[in-house]
Amino acid sequence: MENTDPITIVIFGATGDLTERKLIPALYSSYCKGRLTAFNVVGFARRDWSHEYFRDHLEEGVKEFANDLFDASAWEVFKSRLWYFRGNLDNAVDYENLRAYLGKLEDGPTNRLYYMATSPNFFIPIVKNLGSAGMAREPEHCWRHVVIEKPFGHDLASAQELNDAVHGVFREHQVYRIDHYLGKETAQNILYFRFANTIFEPIWTRNYIDNVQITVAESVDVGHRAGYYDTAGVVRDMFQNHLM
Hints:
With 244 residues, the chain is an alpha/beta fold.
């Protein structure tokens, strides 16, 4: 389904692994399928990158990870809608500057999606800075949504703290909490495969199954994400969300 409403997608943590391997390839595939038309994607991060360097960096990720075959002509059009904004995630002034930048970039009323592809310790500062800059308020006939990528805290208390901070700025209908594994077609089809399949439904019961083993066969290693794993840990990052 084609989306004709103008939208700006702001990715916080735009130089990270999630943006390169998942977000931009997914947006590129949506564009190639005609589902994304009037749009801009603004990457927000602290590295001293130019628009062109940002685009070249993401091109390699699209070539490797996008579901669609790489189309050079389609990429030329798509990348012209990619922009880079340098800023610190915990600096309120940079959000004021970002608001002004988006105002110049957008041509009239535009929906906005804020995607947090950052380390979890930046979630609360980002939310609060969006609020103080007035970027969470929804103008008439436009929406403002925020997407928070797991993990949602490291325990109950920190999860509640994050939730309280989010609700202090955004209303619940504006908030999307996501584990990107939920977007995988295989994960979405598990229930249908189990309960709507006439071959397996009668026999996939305790009467016929001795045990269940779940294997996640990854083709990539930790890479440059060791710092994240040192704080989050593989149990929180993989076991209690992806595998469950």
